[in-house]
Amino acid sequence: MKLKQLEGLLGDLQQFSNPKIELEQYPTGPHIASRMLYTAENSFGDVSDKVVADFGCGCGTLGIAATLLGAEHVVGIDVDAQSLEVASLNAEELEVQMNFVQCDIKNLQFRGLTIDTVVMNPPFGTRKKGADMVFLSSALKVASQAVYSLHKTSTRDHIKRAALRDFNASTAEVLCELIYDVPQLYKFHKKREVDIAVDLWRFVPKRAQ
Ligand SMILES: C[S@@+](CC[C@H](N)C(=O)[O-])C[C@H]1O[C@@H](n2cnc3c(N)ncnc32)[C@H](O)[C@@H]1O
């Protein structure tokens, strides 16, 4: 599938209608989401024929992009039941197969299921300190091949240190820096959109070597 076609399909997905601020529910826009998954597939071969998990899947954008790029199996995980309902409708609408699990990432147990690649746009940890780190640590525990994740550029050194020193990553590479438009979902946002610089990371867990 061409990049523009993927972006177009993701642009039609329903997003959070009543976002929960404490869960940092803001969607990954189609421009960033399509490029994130397209890079994972076309530069690294981490999507097609792989088992992919979308951590904090929200309305399913990243996981659906993985199915559209030929993943063998995709599971979307989120703590919020309402988001999972929307994600399930989005998958149905596009006629793609995806499984959904309601679970807090900190309680995730993946006994017996091999996940090749984790894709995620985790909470940045602005509402609940350390939320981003819980996602990263968990992703690097379950992925056998690679983890793709978005993190605020201001946290770059911290992310790299934690991934390599504490979370079992053998490599931690920033693939590109992006401008993330957080739409005005919450009353405390004064402007229509808040631009945040984010890094697209690729981590490789030690056991993948
Ligand atoms: C920034 S949004 C990203 C949503 C979606 N992945 C996307 O890219 O559009 C973060 C998501 O993580 C979910 N989330 C937050 N804390 C969580 C937790 N502890 N366990 C599981 N999901 C969580 C939220 O409900 C939300 O859907």
TrEMBL record:
<dbReference type="GO" id="GO:0003676">
    <property type="term" value="F:nucleic acid binding"/>
</dbReference>
<dbReference type="InterPro" id="IPR029063">
    <property type="entry name" value="SAM-dependent_MTases_sf"/>
</dbReference>
<protein>
    <submittedName>
        <fullName>Uncharacterized protein</fullName>
    </submittedName>
</protein>
<dbReference type="Pfam" id="PF06325">
    <property type="entry name" value="PrmA"/>
</dbReference>
<dbReference type="InterPro" id="IPR002052">
    <property type="entry name" value="DNA_methylase_N6_adenine_CS"/>
</dbReference>
<dbReference type="GO" id="GO:0008988">
    <property type="term" value="F:rRNA (adenine-N6-)-methyltransferase activity"/>
</dbReference>
<dbReference type="InterPro" id="IPR051720">
    <property type="entry name" value="rRNA_MeTrfase/Polyamine_Synth"/>
</dbReference>
